[in-house]
Amino acid sequence: MKRSAPCALRVFDLSFTLSGLLLLAPFWLARGLLALIRSGRLFERTPLLGRDRRPFAQLAFAGAGPGRELALLFNLLRGDLALVGPRPLSVTEAATLPAADRRFSVRPGLFSLYRLQQRTGIAYDTESELDHRLIEQLSVRSNLGLMLRSVVAGLMGGGAALPIPPQLDFFGVPIVNTTMDEAVDWIAARAVSTPTAATEHDGKFLLAFVNPDCLNIAYRHAPYRRILQQAARVLPDGIGIKIGCRMRGLGLAANVNGTDLFPRLCQRAAQDGFSLFLLGARPGIAELVAENMRQRYPGLTIAGVHHGYFGSDEEAAIVARINDSGAAVLLVAFGVPRQELWLAAHHATLTPPVRMGVGGLFDFYSGRIPRAPLWLREIGLEWVWRLLQEPGRMWRRYLLGNPLFLYRVWQQTRQEGKTRE
Ligand code: UDP
Fold it and tell me: Do 105 and 145 share a domain, yes or no?
């Protein structure tokens, strides 16, 4: 999208702010009065840096309680802040950045791409990378879109910072609460370790991704639940887990789903020189994925592929083929819980150090099923896209499964509350 001229952006900010000041006049007047009565002063000031590193004071109505942020309207009016722009930094934070960093070429803003993606847990790139992308596309239209997406993302994923424990627990399934980068590092470290050097899990690491549907299955399917409990790592997939965390007063470090992890894993495999084996999906699909990923990441070795529709009489030959390929990471796409049960059944005989179930991932990367556009993922509604694509198969999973999952989380939270009392 074409960037708008700075004056067009300022007019946009001013019209928005003036309308806000008018519409919210009774609220900010009352909040200002309350601040004066309660604490004898109108504003609290936080010193920050604005455009061209010019210092300014970010305002909040004095005293605790709701409505403090209404004072930001005056920062917007004065032009200290824009509606959309990189987050304003303190002097200490700014000192770590290069003098010519582009984030200081525009006004800092209340809404940013980084903050938006953080709300739904998909801020996999650094804040600085996302800020630079934001600056490239600053325009009235895209700013309006970003603001709308931020509001919906706030409703779905939440805005307030919550404590982020290293591990989560849903219905007895332990989930590692980590970032995308750490998850890729973890896999890469184990993919290149020699079996004798790796002492945990016999050097065979099962990785699983779980969304609310998987946790619903684990709730009633004891063998699958046991596999998850014994897996080397279970990672959180999707907005449902983030909402579940919020219901329990906890923060999710990131939505570490297989679909977003896969290209990062391919990039790392190409860079570190370990190889992958793709098992699953309809005939021809894994081949397409291998071709696409080799093109995207030159140097990537896909040691072998095989479709996921075979009889039990072929299993031994397929396991031998995987082992002979020398692959370090085996990705199995049969859907949940079939893939995890299959991996557990062949745990001892398979030799790739890292194995993981990846569900419908190959269908996306082969191009067979298009993935939801980024804007839908940013607002936590990728599942609506999946529902519309395959309503016959997905309605049960999402329309019945999501509320059921939330109900069970509520039940678990209540139970834990009672045990604590
Ligand atoms: N699949 C397979 N073998 C089977 C059944 C399914 O390889 O016997 C594949 C199927 O083609 C699809 C994937 O498993 O690519 C399951 O996708 P789904 O979207 O159901 O996975 P999930 O929702 O569990 O991620």
Answer: yes
